Amino acid sequence: MLNAHFVLLLGALSAAAQQATFSSQSTTTQDRTVFHHPIKRVAVIGAGPAGLQAAAKLVEHNFTVRLFDRAPGPGGNWFYTDETPVRESYPDTPIDEEAYIPEHLPATHYYEEGEEGITLEDRWKEHWQPRPVWDNLHTNSPAVITELPDVPYLPDSPWVLSNHVIQRHVRAYASLHNLNANDYPIVSSSPPVTAYSTRVEKLEKIESSQTWRVTVRKLERLPETNQIKASWWTEEFDSVVIATGPYVAPHVPDIAGLADWSKISDAGQYSVYHSQSYRRPERYQNKTVLIVGASVSASEIARDIAPYASSVFASVRRHENVPAFRLRSFQRFPSTTQFLPEIAHFESLPSEARDQGIKHGNIHLKNGSVLHGIDEVILATGYIHSNIFLPNFTADGQPTNLHWTGHWIPDPTLAYTNVRPWTIGRYQSYAFAKVWEGTAHLPSQKQMREDYDNGKYHFRGLFSSAPAEALFRQYVAWLNNESLENGGRFVEPWPMQNREVFVYYSEREWIKGYTTLANFTDFEQLPSREWPTGKADAWDAIVYDDHDW
Ligand SMILES: Cc1cc2nc3c(=O)[nH]c(=O)nc-3n(C[C@H](O)[C@H](O)[C@H](O)COP(=O)(O)OP(=O)(O)OC[C@H]3O[C@@H](n4cnc5c(N)ncnc54)[C@H](O)[C@@H]3O)c2cc1C
Ligand SMILES: NC(=O)c1ccc[n+]([C@@H]2O[C@H](COP(=O)([O-])OP(=O)(O)OC[C@H]3O[C@@H](n4cnc5c(N)ncnc54)[C@H](OP(=O)(O)O)[C@@H]3O)[C@@H](O)[C@H]2O)c1
Ligand SMILES: *[C@@H]1O[C@H](CO)[C@@H](O)[C@H](O)[C@H]1NC(C)=O
Ligand SMILES: *[C@@H]1O[C@H](CO)[C@@H](O)[C@H](O)[C@H]1NC(C)=O
Ligand SMILES: *[C@@H]1O[C@H](CO)[C@@H](O)[C@H](O)[C@H]1NC(C)=O
Ligand SMILES: *[C@@H]1O[C@H](CO)[C@@H](O)[C@H](O)[C@H]1NC(C)=O
Ligand SMILES: *[C@@H]1O[C@H](CO)[C@@H](O)[C@H](O)[C@H]1NC(C)=O
Ligand SMILES: *[C@@H]1O[C@H](CO)[C@@H](O)[C@H](O)[C@H]1NC(C)=O
User: Fold this and answer.
1) Contact (CB, 8 A) for 143 and 155
2) Which residues form the FAD/NAD(P)-binding domain (predicted)?
3) Mutation to probe ligand 4, out of 280, 285, 376 (largest number of atoms < 8 A from CB)
4) Which of 172, 286, 481, 515 gets the most CB atoms within 10 Å of its CB?
C-alpha cells in the first residue's frame, strides 16, 4: 500500500492565488466586467464531459488551449478500466497535502520498481486514479441528459445506458474534436491541445504577469527498462477552466476498529474495500457480504452481487428526512437484502485469528446486536467533495464565490464547470469563450458580489440550485442577448422532447421531478424549491409497497 503522503499528492491553490484580487486583473465599468489583458491562452484541467466541452468550444473560438488530464485518455469518470485504484487509506487522509515538486523545473526522474517502497504499478495508479466505475454499471439518469453535442446515441438506445456505451460516446466526442489521446495537432506547427497522463500539481496566480502558472507532472511507463519516467514542467495561461469533477477521493467512515480490520487479510487478500474498487461480482460468489451505506453505489452493487453472494447485508443510517434520490436506492436493493442499523464498532480480532480473515470477527451494531461471519465488507460510503484548485469549496460539495456562469467572482479569469446534466455544458462552455473573447460581459464585480451575497445566482451545480429548466433558459436568454449586442451565433434552448423525457424519467424514477416545464425565464421567477425530500422514514421506505421499478 502507498504511504499516506503519496495517496493524495494533488496540487493546491497557492496562498498568492487565494488572495488574488480582482482589481489588478480586470476592472468594471458601471455595469460590466472588462479584462485588462487580452485572454489568449487557456488551460482546461480535466477531460471528462465538462472539460472536453469547454476545450472544444475554446478551440473553436481560436484560443490557444491546453487540456490536461491525469488519466491516460478522455472520459473522466467514464474512463472505465479493469484496473482498480490504489487502496484507500484508513481513515481518510487530509486532502490538502501538497504534491512533491522538484526545486528546479523542468525536471525528470526515472522511478525504479520498489523505489521509496512503492511498486511501479501503484505509482502509476496513484497518478491517474482508476475510476470508481464497475463493469455492469448503468446510468441512473436518462440518456438525454448524458448526451454530448453532435455525437448522438443510436436511435434505439435504451433509456439508461451501460457505462461502456457512455465511455465510447465521450471518446467519440473527444475524437470529433481532435481531443483524443492519439490525436495530432490539426496544424502540425501548433502545439498539441491535449496532455494526458499529465496531472496538474499546482495552480498559482503570478501577480507580476497576471498569468496563471500551472505546474504539471506527466508519467510515462517504460516497459523495456521497467521504469516510469516522470516529467515536471510549468506553463502559463491567461485563464483557467477547472473541470476536475465533483469527487476528489473516496470517503472511509470513521468507525471505531475499521482501520484495524482493513489490515486483516485472508490468504493474502484484504476483505474490506471502498466501492471505488468494485468491478465484478464473481469475487463475491458464496460470500456473506456487508455493504455500508444506502445510496446509489450501495443499492447498485447489491443488485450486481446478489445473484452470486450467499447473503447480502446493508448497514443503513437512520434519518428523519430521506432525499428522494435515496428513496430510489432503497427500492432498488434486491429483496433478499437484510437491512441493519448503523455500525457501532468493529471488535478487535484476537492475534491468532488475524490471518484467517474477518469472518472470525464481531461487528457491533448500534442497536446492541452483534454480527458475526461476514466475509467481505464493501464501503459504499461516498466521496470527499472538494476541489483542490478552488478555495472555500464546502464539505457538501458546493463551490463558493462563483457567479452562476461558473466564473470565480474574485478573479473571473478562473472558472469552474461541473456538468449535471451534461447538456448544460454546451451553454456554459460557450459562455466561457464569449466572456473571455469579449463578446459577452459579466456584470460588474460589485453586482456579481451583491447577487451572490443575496443568495441569487449561485452556481451550485444543477441539482441543488435550481430546476434545470431555469438554468437552461437563463443561459439562452443571456447568451443570445449578448450576441445580439456584441456579435456571435445564437443558441437554441434544449429541445422540448428531451425536457419531456427528463421530466418523465425524474418523476418516475427519482420519485420527485428535478426539472419542470413551467415557463420560468430566469432565476428570479423561481419559486423557492429546495432539494426535494421524500419526508419518509428510511425504515418505512425499505418496506415500501411499490417495489416494481
Ligand atoms: C459511480 C458513479 C456513477 C455515476 N453515474 C452517473 C449517471 O448515471 N449519470 C450522471 O449524469 N452522472 C453520473 N455520475 C456523475 C459523474 O460525475 C458525471 O456523469 C460526470 O462524469 C461529471 O463530469 P465532469 O467532467 O464534471 O467530471 P469527471 O467526469 O469526474 O472528470 C474530471 C476529470 O478531471 C481529471 N482531473 C482531476 N484532477 C486532476 C488534476 N489535478 N490534474 C489533471 N486532471 C485532473 C480527472 O482525471 C477526470 O478525468 C456518476 C458518478 C460516479 C462516481
Ligand atoms: N449510475 C449509477 O447507478 C451510479 C452508481 C453509483 C454511484 N452513482 C453516483 O455517484 C455519486 C456517489 O454515490 P455513492 O452512492 O457512491 O455515494 P453517496 O451518494 O455520497 O452515498 C454515501 C452513502 O454512504 C453512507 N455513509 C457515509 N458515512 C457513513 C457511515 N459512517 N456509516 C454508514 N453509512 C455511511 C451515507 O449515508 P448517510 O445518508 O447516512 O450520510 C450514504 O448512504 C452519486 O452522484 C451517484 O448518483 C451512480
Ligand atoms: C477563428 O479563426 C478563423 C480563422 O481565422 C476564423 O475564420 C473564425 O471565424 C474564428 N472563429 C471565431 C469564433 O472567432
Ligand atoms: C458455491 O456454492 C455452490 C452450492 O453450494 C457450489 O456448487 C459452488 O461450487 C460454490 N462456488 C464457489 C466458487 O465456491
Ligand atoms: C438490531 O437490528 C437487527 C436488524 O433489524 C435486528 O435483527 C436485531 O434484532 C436488532 N437487535 C436488537 C437488540 O434490537
Ligand atoms: C473563504 O472563506 C473565508 C471564511 O468564510 C473568508 O474569510 C475568505 O475570504 C474566503 N476566501 C475566498 C478566497 O473567498
Ligand atoms: C440585454 O442587453 C442589454 C444591453 O447590454 C441590457 O440592458 C439588458 O439588461 C440585457 N437583457 C438581458 C435579459 O440580459
Ligand atoms: C406562465 O406565465 C403566465 C403569464 O405570466 C402565467 O399566468 C402562468 O401562471 C405561468 N405558468 C406557470 C406554470 O408558472
Assistant:
1) no
2) 41-312
3) 285
4) 515
Cα(358) to ligand 6 centroid in Å equals: 45
Q: Is 365 helix (H, G, I), strand (E, B) or coil?
A: strand
Cα separation, 289 vs 378, whole angstroms: 7
Q: How far apart are CA 397 and CA 271, in angstroms?
A: 29
- Determine the atom of ligand 5 nearest the C-alpha atom of 368: 13
User: What does DSSP assign to residue 125?
Assistant: H
Closest CA to 473 of 500, 491, 455: 491
User: What backbone phi and psi angles, to 5 degrees, belong to 246?
Assistant: -85, -10
Question: Which positions of the chain have pLDDT values less than 50?
Answer: 1-24, 461-466, 513-549
pLDDT at 490: 96
For cell 476536475, name the residue.
Answer: 244
pLDDT reported for residue 420: 74
What H or E segment, with its residue span, contains residue 230? strand 227-237
368 CA to centre of ligand 5 in angstroms:
8
Ligand 1, pocket-test mutation among 124, 146, 240, 244, most atoms within 8 A of CB: 244
Q: Are 51 and 45 in contact (CB under 8 A)?
A: yes
| DSSP β-bridge partners for residue 218 | 198, 231
* Ligand 2: centre distance to CA 111 (Å): 36
Atom of ligand 6 nearest to the CA of 401: 14
Domains of the chain: 4-89+116-214+234-247+385-486 (3.50.50.60), 252-381+495-549 (3.50.50.60)
Q: Is the CB of 72 under 6 A from ligand 6?
A: no
**Contact call for residues 9 and 130 (beta carbons, < 8 A):** no
User: For residue 46, how far is its CA from the centre of ligand 2 (angstroms)?
Assistant: 23
Q: Which ligand is nearest to the CA of 11?
A: 1
Q: Please name which of 130, 78, 137, 538 lies closest in space to residue 305, comparing C-alpha atoms.
A: 137
The closest residue, in CA terms, to atom 5 on ligand 5 is 340
**Across the chain, which distance is largest between two alpha carbons, in Å?**
77
Does the beta carbon of 62 lie inside 6 Å of ligand 3?
A: yes
Beta strand pairing call for 311-315 and 107-112: unpaired
**Cα–Cα distance, 481 to 143 (Å, whole number):** 30
Residue 468: the pLDDT is 64
Instruction: Give the Cα separation of 449 and 410 in Å (integer).
Output: 9
In sequence order, the 6+-apart residues with CB closer than 8 A to the CB of 317 are 294, 342, 538
Q: To which residue does cell 496513484 refer?
A: 126
Runs of H (alpha helix) within 381-509: 425-437, 445-453, 468-486, 496-509
